[in-house]
Design goal:
By secondary structure, this protein is of the alpha/beta class. The chain is built from seven helices and seven strands; from the N terminus they run ααββαββαβααβαβ. A seven-stranded mixed beta sheet has the order 3-2-1-4-5-7-6. β4, α4 and β5 form a beta-alpha-beta unit. The radius of gyration is 16 Å and the shape is globular. 38% of the residues are buried. The structure holds S-adenosylmethionine. The site of S-adenosylmethionine has 24 residues, from loops. S-adenosylmethionine (SAM) binds next to loops.
């Protein structure tokens, strides 16, 4: 890992993922998490504010970056929620949990980054209990060709600077391609956000 990834990416990504419009996107899905919850790539724990502490029995916060985990642990302690969160330093492509053990998988602003997203979604399917739910809030490929063209042009420069984040991934297609049925996916451009990074979608999905 280079100095950029170690020292610059964690605060940069935490900051970029905490704008007011992005926080509003989190609030649309995270409070709906129930039971045993797995969060893929929890980063610095920005979602922790939005969980319903009475509805979440246990949160498995998976994140491969040690730097991010340290930040997330501080956040959990500040919220007085440390005892109900189990941190797992791992990638989403190999989740250290048993089959059929999770009620809700939370995926926010992370499918854009996970290198093997197909492996990650296959793991999400494996650990979900029958009837369990994926709740997602992501950014990705814009439906307008004029914007999408710029996303494709900028992505090669953007990706290494932004910790591996892709601009051109299509979350809806990724989820359905991985065997999930979407339940009410909504989309929009975020206000006060450059359109290349501001086309977002959110909703729920279950194993089809
Ligand atoms: C843009 S941040 C988003 C963090 C968090 N999900 C949020 O909503 O704020 C992307 C996160 O994905 C993590 N990540 C990178 N590769 C990953 C992988 N293979 N599996 C899980 N998370 C990964 C990064 O370390 C980073 O914390």
């Amino acid at each position: 890992m280079g100095l950029w990834e170690k020292y610059v990416v964690p605060p940069l990504v935490s900051c970029a993922c905490s704008t007011k419009p992005i926080m509003k996107q989190r609030a649309k899905v995270v409070p709906r998490a129930r039971g045993k919850v797995l969060e893929l790539g929890c980063g610095s724990g920005t979602n922790f504010d939005y969980y319903s502490q009475q509805d979440v029995e246990r949160l498995y916060a998976l994140e491969p970056s040690g730097g991010m985990i340290k930040r997330a642990q501080k956040k959990a302690e500040a919220l007085g929620w440390r005892d109900r969160i189990e941190f797992m330093e791992a990638g989403a492509e190999a989740v250290p949990l048993e089959d059929n053990s999770i009620d809700t998988v939370i995926i926010t602003f992370v499918l854009c980054t996970i290198p093997d997203w197909e492996g990650a979604l296959s793991e999400a399917r494996r650990v979900l209990k029958p009837g369990g739910e994926v709740l997602f809030s992501e950014h990705g490929l814009a439906p307008d060709e004029g914007i999408a063209k710029w996303q494709r042009r900028i992505e090669p420069v953007w990706k290494p600077l932004a910790g591996g984040c892709h601009l051109t991934r299509d979350t809806g297609q990724m989820l359905t391609g991985a065997g999930f049925a979407l339940e009410g996916m909504e989309t929009m451009y975020l206000p006060k956000t450059p359109k290349i990074a501001g086309f977002v979608c959110w909703g729920a999905a279950r194993v089809a």
